[in-house]
Batch of 4 targets.
Target 1
Amino acid sequence: MNPDQEIRIAAFNWLSEKKAFYDDVFPRDILAKGFEFKGERIPLLGPQGIFKPRMMELPLSITTAPGGPYDDSFGQDNFLRYRYRGTNVFHRDNVGLHEAMIHNVPLVYFHGIVPGKYLAEWPVYIIGDDPGALTFKVAMDIMNFLPQPEDVLSDNDVARRAYITSTIKVRLHQRSFREKVIHAYQSQCAFCRLRHVELLDAAHIIPDNEPDSRPTVDNGLSLCKIHHAAFDKYILGVSPDYYIKVRSDVLDENDGPMLVHGLKEMHNQRIIIPRKFELQPNKEFLERRFEKFKKVG
């Protein structure tokens, strides 16, 4: 195994170890700092989207910045279209990705969700190069299938990668919804103001299993896990004017301190809402949800 391959595998292992702690959404500063390899510091990303650490011959990662200048997107075939750096086909970064394609070199893909936070996926592969459109085609795969440079991929390999990439696309949208909602609420529960991010969820106002639900911030509430569960089960509701209501039968219950302080004391409290109007809960969505809550109560 050459040094380039060693560093690549070390990067994958480092990401795997950190994934449990960061729940696969990594802070940018941690990625920029990277890890130590044989006495050298190896960053995982840099200021440009296509990144090659000093010690490596070919790029290690590609990044889509949140709200960045490039329109990276998934095509109808479920593969990612990743934009060239600039318009010069022969820029060293673009040439590096082309070489990674030729030699079946695995990379890391960082997708910026909100400023400073990136969803990480690895290994990913460059499987196509379209200089006319200034884009590379990118596929996700799993660690069990790391091809060697001389390997020729079968139709089954292509189908597997298309399926894996499509599932990751769905997860990316789900995680993007969560991070954007929690970011809009300044990383706190809209009901109780709990600030432990690891205990926060993005709750849908119009449930995501309904056909007209949408993964936008105005259809979300940042809630701690207990209040998310209570909201989903219609124990708690939110009126269109942003007040929390507790279901009447729950208000009449007598139980321990969690019921009293965790639920009953929420009654008639006003929720926290984002400062920007476009991020605030959609009142029509709240009204529709609140009608269901009243029927259950």
Target 2
Amino acid sequence: MGTSTRQASPFLSTFPGRYYYDPAIYAQEQECIFSRMWVYGGVANSLPKPGDYRVLQIASESVIVVRNKQGALQAFLNVCRHRGARLCSAASGHLNGSIQCHYHAWTYGLDGRLIGAPNVLNRPDFERALYGLHPVALEVWQGMIWLNLSNNPPSLREQLDDPRVHDFGSNGAIERYCIANLNVGKTMVYEVQANWKLIMENTLECYHCGPMHPELCALLPQYKTGLIDGNDGTEFADNVEAFTITGEASRPPLPGLLPEDHRRYAGYFGMPNVFLNLLSDHVAIDWLEPLGPASTRVTSEWLFDPDAMASPDFDPMDAVDILDLVNRQDWEVCELAQQGVTSKAFAQGGNYAPLEHHIRDFVDYILEKLES
């Protein structure tokens, strides 16, 4: 009797369904990934003046990032050392030289030192140096803020050098765009009712681009095929001048780019929470903050050359409108996927088609981190 062999499946498996909604798995991710890795926290130039601050959610912690009086960025847990009250409630703003708790007026310098505590500070048995704000590790790389909740974190460079974590590449593209010299021209915040991994999986592939993003594919025709390589990027359509809602250029190219950068889009993913969009006349950065098993805040920042922004007719919206449209299309399908992952039909997970096989590397990395 002859023997037959079963043909290998063209598909690879996703996470099992519970990985997208189980509170216990979500809590484990926050502990093993977001509490230990360096996470992206915005561009440094978004906080230009001493006292400018931003509040971020990292794992279970609220974190204040603030520029101190000496002009350096620092980060602290957003918790008063007295009775644990939240210090800064707004997502961002400006502090006039200090951080004061609304509860009992304990007051901290922009460097985290305790500088005021009514009826306590001058007691001889009170060691104020022990009651400063809890610091959070902060590094700035290429103009981007990175934060780490660990007490003794490894260097950011160690994480950036791991190709499984970042695909920023070695072709010098990030350096050419000089993100540290760009300023934020527009910020948009989205509340997406989907697990953070569904959003990252969507970001990592373009198999969905043809059905979901006709406007994007009109600008970047290779995306219609689903065949993309983030490190090499892809060319604009022949009639397209820039990555704008009209396809027309309204700003000069960023200084320092190569001629081949002028009509090219490149996207770079960085674990666990950032995606860089490099364009001829601007950079757009999407980054996420998981808020719960089925809820994620996504912030998009559009960065432009300061000289272009100084022009009286500067208007970022032609660049903003196209990515905002693509984002909203993505959030719609991510939320539809979130509604499906709780079904018994998805209990064992779904499948990645061949064009999505690289997402399995993301899955394997997450599973490895959860076991560490």
Target 3
Amino acid sequence: MKSADAFAKTRAEGRAALIAYLSGGFPSLADSIKAIDILIDNGADAIEIGLPYSDPVMDGPAVQRSAGRALAAGFRTRHLFEIVEAVAGRVPILSMTYWNLVERYGVDAFARDFASAGGAGLITPDLIPDEAEAWMAASDAHDLDRVFLVAPSSTEERIASTVAACRGFVYAQSVMGVTGARAATSAVAPALVERTRAHTDLPIGVGLGVRDGEQAAEIASYGDAVIVGSAVVSCYLEADDVPSGHQRLAELTADLAAGVRR
């Protein structure tokens, strides 16, 4: 299932999509699969599985902690494909990954194995289209979405070249800096979405900072998708145990899903 399928559904319903992020292998391999099922059952329209990395440049404290725990427990790239295979079919499943991990595995081999597992595509926060020749070829060969990022600092020329290379949707990084739930949404996000929309008909997902349904509703008023990550992993980081984390996740997701449907 591709991102376009999810956006066709949400657009027909007159609402934004809810895209939820979870670090692969957190809080454990089996529980990350359970968590993704919970996210989908409670209204997530697409899933981003973060491929844990020891040297992140964009992840905030919550995502770093969750990825660190997964790595300490032995998570490896091959486990990503196991998770995707276990949850694929109901909603699009993407992976957000730093490019070094894909290069080390082999770009075409990664694309092949991810597609074979049922994955929809990759979000590549530290890869720009100018340096993505191998990924462009592999994603075309294996029919995968490729999601690049635009930011408030992006020039008009950079936005135009970035969205031209995207397939599936565009990721609008609504704040400068690392990820993390925030008390207020970005004041520059609406302008970034408007600037980006002038260059593409692709859906635009807005990420970084969303923590509850109220904020989700605010972003859903101008974005095509609301992307939530740190608040999701914090359900487990702040819980006394995994079952409590599952319950917190179900409640948060239902709140977020209600927000994008207002």
Target 4
Amino acid sequence: MSRPVALITGASRGIGRAIAEALSPSHHLLIGGRDAAAVAEVVAACESAEPFVVELTDADAVAAAVADITRLDVVVHSAGVIAYGPLATTDPAEWERVLAVNVIAPATLTRLLLPALRAASGLVVFINSGAGLTASPGWSVYAASKFALTALADSLRAEERGIRVTSVHPGRVATDMQAELHQLEGRDYDPSKYLQPAAVAQVVKTVVDLGTSGVVPSVRVTP
């Protein structure tokens, strides 16, 4: 493989798909997602890509999926779930659901990919959120997961000196998840008022293009 290799989770839609489109001219892509048909559509649209279809909360399935990856230049953790509601009405099952996808899954995938990332002096990008920096009412579960993701990135950066680690904290982005959020909040949704996925993807591409000459530990992107 002459191209550098990048694995992008949650790449079948939204921010993840935009990142795949931004990196397609320069990288061979592993397109992550659970929906094989949606992943295949993105693979077909990229210059050099293959599917990475796996349930990220299934540690055994993830281990099997990455077993043949011996060198990896970039991994972008874009998969995630939203949650909205006050702590008083949030049950343990919701905490487990959100933390499993937003924290434990990227931690597990990164751990399994460490040998491949070390071999390439690779880059790990966590697509976080403004909620990973500041919590607001109604966001207890989601913000806790994103604060934990910030801590995960900071710890990884300190532990793995040969691997670059970047946290990207976008404000609200015009995605299907944003539409879902507005429905939960009971508000009308106007996508033109928010960041476009391509803007976040451009930030990620800038970080990737920096190469081993430096690292951007954290970047905040707002509408």
